[in-house]
Design brief:
CATH topology of one domain in chain A: BirA Bifunctional Protein, domain 2
CATH superfamily of one domain in chain A: Bira Bifunctional Protein, Domain 2
Structural class of chain A: alpha+beta
Largest interface: A-B, 107 and 107 residues
CATH architecture of one domain in chain A: 2-Layer Sandwich
Number of strands of chain A: 19
Helix content of chain A: 25-40%
Strand content of chain A: 15-25%
Mean pLDDT of chain A: 92
CATH class of one domain in chain A: Alpha Beta
Distance between the termini of chain A: 42 Å
Oligomer: homodimer
């Protein structure tokens, strides 16, 4: 392998010191998911192309695979039978997995899934072609109780709240509230209205209003639609404000009751985490109940770092239907935002806690044995690369942030190279302070 | 998503109970790598196709990507400039990463990398199109001390020896021994001989001898080549047996000294782990020193589950050269072998330790609060899906292997549903026995 190597746009790669931070973040998210009883799942990276293309709007994002020397004589621009593509999210593969393995799973089925996904989009800040998602979903057979919609924000609050990152705010809404309200207003094409409302942040209320009226709404209807979208509240007070708009519809009432429950649960367990925001629509058309978006305080302009919602029709097979609710954390986007502002650091770039010095190459086995003894007690240790002068061996440790250097001798000794303190020690029993054992990740906030 | 869903041959997927085992295995391997001071690295899944194809013999295995709606009008059968393929191992991407980031890395650079790789091969038992590899490598600039070749088996011995799997035996050899010996015999084309010797396990000594003679060796030369290949020893005794064959060459001596060191180090630190086996050649042509293969006791016929070696010329850029040594554990192959024989089991299929029962839907918040209190103490807990009769709620736990059911009440109580014992408990202070906290993975051996 040689020369002219340049990074690939849209395919971020971290240095080991950053990867160490990513692992720490992924590990803490995973542990939180497990604390809530979500079981681990990993699906293959590929799906049949026809499955990936069922939602037409994402077709442009798919990477298609072909074997370099495929027997079938290569590909053309049409979709070849059995052709495979890389998954662009974890929801489509999960739905497929549930259908394929329904007979072997216990329902309701709670799973988490932390994997890379790929999209052939034009790369730009916050958009990547390869990135990590961390998903949870709860699916049931036939029906899924609405209380699960109230559980999702608690999980995300714990998962992200436990990290050395800025505070998060989860914005919740309910598609039944929106659709019921629009229906109650006498609007037939609720989907068109949703699409317009979804643009509020981008183009502002005046232009959304124009769009709504151009789409056939009366001025009065458009005003009500915008009035609903303006409602925000940190507690269930939003429900009265909706009712004051004077629109009534059974679906609206159902949605309000569900949304009140989501907000009440969050207020009881995690005050300040959730805000009802009736502007949130989530473009994807498969959501049918609660929807979630999540903003990072101080980084709101980067958009949602964790989104999802309730879906009733994603996975169906003959008479079987598997409604679910889920959310996805955009881990790579989150990290890229924080790395770009040096808002996350690790105390060292390597796992090593102790560098074992080497007196001479003949005595290397002694150093190897000391390192082995330290490892048996769970202390990450490596042996110096050569028997250079001790000053040079110490600099090897310094450059990597390794805090201790071990010197084998008649009596072994260990030096904290930060303070310079050195003391006799026995590799079979010595332990460093807990905070030195592994690299520590800290945030700027 | 609907109907006609079938598994894809070569793309294994585990059920959550198996994924849980895979995670445990990967986690323990990772912790061992970190104990030896290897830093984490993850490279993108794709590489420019021309980089992947530099080693001609693997070109048939590569999956090429195209964006479904690429602006450049699709692909044909030739290699398009800037075309991307999925990596087929972790060594080629690592070499590229080192060249790309040499200025930001500290050498010698020790890294581990645990990722999926893809190969477009025809699937068969033990061969997959998507599978996990767990790699370690140590690379240095210009020169790499040979003592690192002795360290690799210790890491693998700890990583695999700590798992609930059968014992492993690492077979080591040194390419300098083979090449030096062949040269000392007056053989010019040592590569052809290596290729023949590599077939020993498959076709036996008689046919290898025929192949060698057909390739231009004298009967005496062929006999010596086979005599060398027959040498095996659990200690450095192999060196005398090689010398007794009466061949001398400086490269042979150098290789023998290196191999003695590898074996001696292993005998001192992990007796029984390593065996010198002078038949091992490793087909890949980039190895230049020690080579490793690893067999699982009782599963030898499945071949090596962890292979690697020393390479001097993998990563070069202008005047910079980065020699290295590394090894790769074929995690998916290992798991598939053991799963196929029910040789690995988890004590339960979900992380959940406690199911919190629900008295009535009105009282659900009380159960949610009890679960939150348990989680604050690190106890995985989930709340029952509905307020069914307690017998039914207990069966929900039973079917998933959840050991405890929690009953909120005037005084809360907790029941071990395996023994039937029930006792009053406080969610803020109760803790289960350590062995119940997480699923436990055990092996059949």
């Amino acid at each position: 392998m040689s020369s002219k190597i340049t990074p690939l746009s849209g395919f971020p790669e971290w240095l080991p010191s950053q990867r160490l931070i990513e692992q720490e973040i992924l590990g803490r998210v995973q542990r939180t998911f497990e604390l809530y009883g979500f079981a681990p799942l990993e699906t293959r990276a590929v799906e049949p192309l026809d499955q990936l293309l069922r939602k037409g709007e994402t077709s442009k994002e798919v990477y298609v695979l072909r074997r370099l020397q495929a027997e079938d004589g290569g590909t053309d621009d049409t979709v070849v039978k059995d052709e495979l593509g890389l998954h662009f999210d974890l929801t489509v593969p999960f739905a497929r997995f549930v259908l394929e393995n329904a007979g072997k799973l216990q329902f309701p089925f709670r799973r988490y899934q932390i994997q890379k996904v790929w999209r052939g989009e034009r790369p730009q800040e916050g958009r990547y072609r390869e990135f990590y998602q961390a998903d949870i979903d709860i699916v049931d057979r036939d029906t899924l109780p609405a209380h699960y919609e109230a559980e999702i924000p608690l999980v995300i609050g714990d998962a992200l709240g436990g990290l050395p990152i800025p505070r998060v705010k989860i914005q919740v809404n309910n598609r039944k509230v929106l659709e019921g309200f629009y229906r109650g207003l006498g609007i037939e094409s609720t989907e068109d209205v949703l699409r317009q409302v979804d643009k509020l942040d981008k183009i502002g209320p005046a232009r959304v209003s124009e769009g709504l009226i151009a789409g056939g709404l009366s001025t009065a209807q458009a005003e009500k639609v915008l009035a609903l979208a303006e409602i925000q509240a940190p507690d269930s007070g939003f429900a009265d404000r909706v009712k004051q708009l004077g629109v009534s519809d059974p679906l609206l009432d159902e949605g309000l009751a569900e949304l009140v429950r989501v907000v009440d649960t969050a207020v009881a367990e995690k005050p300040g985490l959730v805000v009802a925001d009736l502007r949130i629509a989530r473009g994807l058309d498969y959501y049918t109940g609660t929807v979630y978006e999540t903003l990072l305080e101080g980084y709101e302009r980067f958009g949602s770092i964790s989104s999802g919602g309730r879906y009733d029709n994603l996975a169906t097979s003959g008479r079987d239907v598997f409604p679910g609710v889920g959310i996805s954390i955009g881990v790579t986007r989150l990290l890229a935002i924080l790395f770009g502002r040096d808002a996350l650091t690790a105390s060292r770039a390597v796992p090593t806690c102790v560098l074992v010095a080497v007196n001479s190459e003949e005595e290397r086995p002694r150093s190897v044995a000391a390192a082995a003894a330290l490892r048996r007690n769970g202390i990450p240790a490596e042996v110096a690369p050569n028997a250079a002068k001790f000053g040079k061996q110490i600099r090897y440790a310094e450059r990597r942030g390794i805090p201790y250097v071990w010197f084998p001798g008649e009596r072994d000794s260990v030096k904290d190279i930060r303070s310079g303190e050195q003391a006799d020690a026995d590799a079979a029993t010595w332990t460093p302070p807990q905070e030195d054992l592994r690299p520590v990740v800290t945030g700027a906030v």
